[in-house]
Amino acid sequence: MKTDKSIDTSDMFQSIFEFPLQMKDAKFIGENIKLNNTYSDAQNIVVCGMGGSAIGGDLSKSLVKKSLKLPLTVNRNYEMPNWVNSNSIVVCSSYSGNTEESLNAYHDAITKGAKVIGITTGGKLSFLLDKNNNDKVEIPSGLQPRAAVAFSFIPLLYLLKKLNLTDSEAINDISTTIDALELARNLYSTGVDKNPTLNLAQKIYDTLPVIYGEDGSTSAIALRWKGQFCENSKMLAYHNDIPEMNHNEIVGWQENPQLLKKISILWISDKSINSRNSLRIDASKNILNNIPFLQHKIEIDGPNFTERFIHLLHFGDWVSYWCALLHSTDPSPVKKIDKLKKILSEKS
């Protein structure tokens, strides 16, 4: 198996391969964030966005969960929560700057008196931020939003630190994480038998993946993997959290056995997860046993949580890429999203 530019016509391969370089660029942007407004009386944070922009909020929240001083909510909708007010920091993240849900949420945040900061490449959001003298973090354009993931979470990590809402632990571990991924990608990008991302793709590409992660930790990675399977691989996939799935979903693995045999379960784990949740994963695997097509546990070695967490993200991007090629489908186009946007634009 090898990459095929007759299939991957927009070179998603290169976008994934350059993720460590993207991290370096995002780190530079983060280090040079300048804020003109004051945010000292903030009581909560809302990150609003959709898709590849919103996932930055989920990833950042997981990476700083032990040091975050204020509650942080990721909002994926047209309106802000009712409790948003002048003591709220709202980070509007839209890669294109033209995402209609994020633009509507921006206006709602302004109406509610929130302190707004934007992360974007430009578009209408950039115009509104400048017009209203809101602080703005500008990121590079020219990528698929989901392929610009480093720009959606690394500047946000630096922003949270600059606002004095977190410590520097995750930021300090980014440089060594980049080094580790530069080594790992040399294997993950090759069509050789010892490539674990290709091996996993070959096992699951003709199944429906269900991905489980720990709530507040690897659940953000499970959500990212789900999105990448859907957009890159053009495969339906679903995700849920441990321990929540133990209180309902696990019972559903019973009827329609012929359908269950087309489902693969991917357990996204880490050595830092709660010991009871680790036990729950192992016990759940045993209970479900041979009901699905397969079960596979993914856990990455590394010296710190930041490195292991971001490595899991990168690992999943490669799995979704190889699944796309195994289906002979171009990983870049998202024709159904484009069609939906066209329909919505005609009815605005």
Provide structural commentary.
The model has no long low-confidence stretch (mean pLDDT 97). The protein is α/β, with parallel strands linked by helices and 348 residues long. The protein contains 14 helices and nine strands. Strands 2-1-3-4-5 form a five-stranded parallel β-sheet, with helices on both faces. α12 (275-288) links the parallel β8 (263-268) and β9 (294-298). It folds into two domains: 33-172, Rossmann fold (3-Layer(aba) Sandwich), CATH 3.40.50.10490; 193-326, Rossmann fold (3-Layer(aba) Sandwich), CATH 3.40.50.10490.
Question: What tags apply to this protein structure?
Answer:
348 residues, alpha/beta, Rossmann fold, 5-stranded parallel beta sheet, 4-stranded parallel beta sheet
